[in-house]
Amino acid sequence: MSSPSDNPLVRFAAFWWAIGVFAAFGLTLLVIRVFTGGSDRPDPLEEAAAAKRYEIRETVAAAQKSAFAYKEVEAGKTVQVPPHDVFAHLGKSLVAEQPVAVAQPEQIVPGSDRQLAAAAAPSSDFGAVDALTPAADAAIDPALLEAGKAQYTAGTCFVCHGMNGEGGPIAPPLAASDWVTGPVSNLIRIQLRGLTGPITVSGKQYNLPAPMSPLAQQSDEQIAAVLTYVRNSFGNKASAVLPEQVKMLRSEVGKPMLTEADMIKP
Ligand code: HEC
């Protein structure tokens, strides 16, 4: 007994049916394409926009060309000669410029002669600085605390130590820190020199992923204010810090980062 698929006539017809369906499908696609306008035909709006772009480019190129002089320095080699007043202007503005490193002498470039000299200079008298610390119960000007709070943000302290001095994965806490309420000279030196290495804060050891960089670009007043603020916020209570105390320790700037061992135990 033979099945219909063995029949050559049935197989022949099936073959041509398949071809037919395929061709009809292709034809339909073609018709759809023709009626929807195809996408190869240039869009007149797009052409106009392109022409406009070329026109603008030509105008700009021509304007640039007329603004600069060109000179043939050797056969076949033409270079652009900027108008002489460009150099005159540049020279004048450079002379008038106050580079940051000059305007703020407390910024010392690492590895420079100045930094090496600073590193070799004898340390200041920390005892004399701490002796100036006002009494812990002396009233503190609320305006100074306000200024300190502003500097806590502007000086970026909050980024690492948290808005409430709570510390975090990259910095130890300032809240309930024995360093914060301890000797003022430590705190000023941390601002001026930075701090690296493991540190024990109120009995807990911290190994932080990165050191605290020096923040010596702050003025004496800013450092005094921010330290007064942290010493009297987040539950801390201690004396104010005076700008004179910061000033006395400016010679610390440029010395290597502090480690815990460099500081007076709180
Ligand atoms: C880039 C992050 C960062 C910034 C910004 C920063 N600190 Fe620190 N601070 C640290 C780290 C890290 C340590 C601990 C360093 C170590 O011992 O390795 C530290 C330590 C301290 C300490 C001593 C330890 C403690 O927890 O009491 C004080 C005080 C301190 N910072 C105050 C400040 C003040 C004030 C500011 C803003 C003017 C400030 N820091 C800005 C990261 C930062």
Question: Can you offer a commentary on this structure?
Answer:
This protein is mainly alpha-helical. 48% of the residues lie in helices and 6% in strands. The protein has a domain of 140 residues: Cytochrome Bc1 Complex, Chain D, domain 2 (Orthogonal Bundle), CATH 1.10.760.10. A hairpin with a 2-residue loop joins strand 1 and strand 2. The termini are far apart. The model has no long low-confidence stretch (mean pLDDT 87). The structure holds heme C (HEC).
Largest sheet properties = 2 strands, antiparallel
The number of distinct β-strands equals 4
CATH architecture heading of the domain at 123-262: Orthogonal Bundle
- What is the CATH top level name of the domain at 123-262? Mainly Alpha
Helix content: 40-55%
- By DSSP (H or I, 4+ residues per run), the number of helices equals 11
Instruction: Say what the CATH topology of the domain at 123-262 is.
Output: Cytochrome Bc1 Complex, Chain D, domain 2
**Name of the CATH superfamily of the domain at 123-262:** Cytochrome c-like domain
Strand order in space, largest sheet: 1-2
- For the CA atoms, what is the radius of gyration? 38 Å
Mean pLDDT: 87
Low-confidence spans: pLDDT under 50, at least 5 residues?
none
Beta-strand content: 5-15%
- N-to-C series of helices and strands: HHEEHHHHHHHEEHH
Question: For this entry, what is the oligomeric state of its chains?
Answer: single chain
Structural class: mainly alpha
